Fold this sequence. Notes:
mainly beta
Amino acid sequence: LKAIGKTTDPSTVSPFFTGAISSSFRATYLQTRIDGIWRSTNKGSSWKSIGGPNMSYDNRMITAVDDNIVFTVDSFGSIWATYNSGGDPLTSPGAPGVYKFSAGKIINDTSGVTVYLPIYYHHTGTISSIDLTMHYPAGPLQYLGSLLTYGKSVDVLGTRWPGRAGLHFEADDLTAATDSLIAYAVFKWFPLEFDCANIYFDSLSSVVTASVCGEQFLQSGTPFKGIIGAYKWCGESAAVNSELHESLFTFAPNPVGESGIIRSALFAGTVTISVYDIIGKLINTQETYLSPTSPVTLSLGNIASGVYHCSIHTKNLPLYEFTVMHYAN
């Protein structure tokens, strides 16, 4: 055997309660400790906790399928599995009346294109800051970064590796945001025919300023997900709709050339349709009548190729939003 690394950070040396160590195929080393799973990306010179259950007993064995999927066997013979890098919760208590995020669904069959997955923000009260962790399948998706609608990055340095990234939203940006689109997670999309990729946003936490005496306390938010998929296997021919109103309106085709069709199987009434570019500038707007028997044509032939954000405003329903990928002929 040959020594390949020596821990140089005394704070990470003790107490380690395992005789087992594992490596993913990218040579990311993992081991269990009494306080969860620890990872090293520099051959053991330093270790960092990546979460996982706190144990009052020894985890004796560990193995890693890749950087995200980890299995351990404890001293009682029970098998533990994590599919998100070592213990980030995929469920949490939620924060009714404080804030909520959601994402959309994008259907695309073209390989190698840049896809902007929209992230929506809905809030009441005052949020000082919000952190969340994003998990995605690194096979069909190559992560390029996440940014607010006006271009500011929300990525956290040191938290990104294939399949996972940490995001941080500043208080000023959250306070300025309306109950609407706030950011994009940007990917290169390399779909196979059977791809329907789920992007999970979890481990939401924030610092909330209470109205009484300005006291601050930690608050957990509700996890959410987005989807980037290929037509045949995701069962959609168009971009969808945010999670809030998944079946109210549809738009097809997407990507779109000169024009696309907005339909609704349930709604009948006057709608205002607005189109914005990626930095939030209004491109055009129209007011028209929409019903199950009267679809609406959305014309995009007079604008440049790119990703656009569209909204549908009705008198009695919440704002409905979706993302369009437009190519000029």
